[in-house]
Amino acid sequence: MFSRQQIRGLATIIVMVGIIVALLYIGKPRLKYYLAERDKVAMPATHSDEEPARDSLFCFDPNTVTYEELRAMGFSKRTAVGIVKYRSMGKVFSIKEDFALCYGVTDSMYARLKPYIRIGSKYAARPKRDTLYASHRATERRFAPRPFEPFRIDTVGVEYLRQIGFSTRQARSLIEYRNRAAEGIRDMAELRDCYVVSEEMADSLEAYVIFPEPKPYGGLVEINSADSATLRSVAGIGAKSVVAIMEYRRLLGGFHSIKQIAELKCVTAENFARISKQICCDSCVISKIDINFAPAIELERHPYMTRSAIKQIVELRKSKGGWKSFEEMIEDKIFGAEQTTAIAPYLHFGDIPQGFEEQ
Question: How are beta strands 209-210 and 151-152 bridged, if at all?
Fold first, then answer.
């Protein structure tokens, strides 16, 4: 057992050790602060991890700058290594902006470095002279062609078409399009149908193109029974016009007059004057609508029927059964005089149910 004196000595030692440990613990943060401040003073400003110092900047090529030079400009070790590795993987900085894409290069850093970046001629992006020259020549040929003069579309060659603004490919395609047609390109509508002829070019050529004279026509084309090939044989009716004519014929139920062809937007007045000499119309074959029994959906399909007229027809049929003549419909203010003239050939008046007649 310890004596009383030994116990007091041991207690004194323990208390002193505790005091020393407490002092060390309390003074540790102050020591760290002191060491950090010392390191800041000792570290050169050019090695900051934030941004390059202004007095450490110099002209450099990002394609050849070394790790040491990047560090001297103030890049952190990680960023400097990353730029060198990025370049070793095959990256070429062809414009200044490429350098801004590197990891670790902030917008503010790039803004400060940009005046010092010099891309060497070996790496700088260069415009393709041949491409620019070809583009310039194509533009010059397109917008400054040889002055137009009258020419025959059935005999003109590739070289002449190139001289008036077509590219070689367009000129060859136009010649092929002309040769595929049985009678060549016969009018402006057929020329516009060629996919290589733009609306702008067609408009500029219209006053100068000479089309072949139409062959003597053996007979008139009956437009209600003609198929697409027969309609296409009419000089002045192009591929687009054929589709429009046949669709309009279907909606009408047939043409009762050749003048109805002129109602189509795709048929100009000049073209209609040419077409009208080659066609005829058999109005006996048109389909008629029974105005007293036709459902509303059938009435709606007809181009000459208006919404207001259809509404009145459906409502009045319920009360009076129908009509016996156009005069009655005019009295009921369903059709005006002009609309009656247009719609009359397409309407038929079926017998009114007996119950309504008695009323």
Answer: parallel
Domain ranges for the chain: 4-42, 54-116, 138-210, 221-285, 289-358
Burial track 134-166 (b if 16+ CB lie within 10 A, e otherwise): eeeeeeebeeebeeeeeeebeebeeeebbebbb
Cβ pair 258, 223 in contact under 8 A:
yes
Q: Judge whether 54-116 and 221-285 match in fold.
A: yes
**Integer Cα distance of 292 and 357 in angstroms:** 13
State the average pLDDT over residues 336-345. 84
Q: Which CATH number fits domain 54-116: 3.90.940, 1.10.1330, 1.10.150, 3.30.43?
A: 1.10.150
CATH second-level architecture of 221-285?
Orthogonal Bundle (1.10)
Enter the pTM of the model: 0.45
According to DSSP H, which parts of 144-238 are helical? 158-163, 168-180, 188-193, 199-205, 228-232
Q: d(Cα 113, Cα 119) in Å, to the nearest integer?
A: 13
Contact 221, 237 (CB under 8 A): no
Q: CA 269 from chain center: how many Å? A: 33
Please tell me the distance from the alpha carbon of residue 189 to that of residue 235, in angstroms, as a whole number: 9
- Please name the residue ranges forming H helices in the chain: 4-42, 67-72, 77-88, 107-113, 129-143, 158-163, 168-180, 188-193, 199-205, 228-232, 239-252, 269-275, 296-301, 307-320, 326-331, 337-343, 354-358
Q: How many CB atoms lie within 10 A of CB 19?
A: 10
> Residue 64 in contact with residue 121, Cβ under 8 Å?
no
Identify whether the C-beta of residue 299 lies closer than 8 Å to the C-beta of residue 310.
yes
As a whole-number percent, the residues of the chain with pLDDT over 70 amount to 80
Task: Report yes or no: 23 and 15 within 8 Å, Cβ to Cβ.
Answer: no
At 89-140, the pLDDT tens digits run 888 888 888 888 887 888 888 888 888 999 888 888 765 555 444 554 544 4
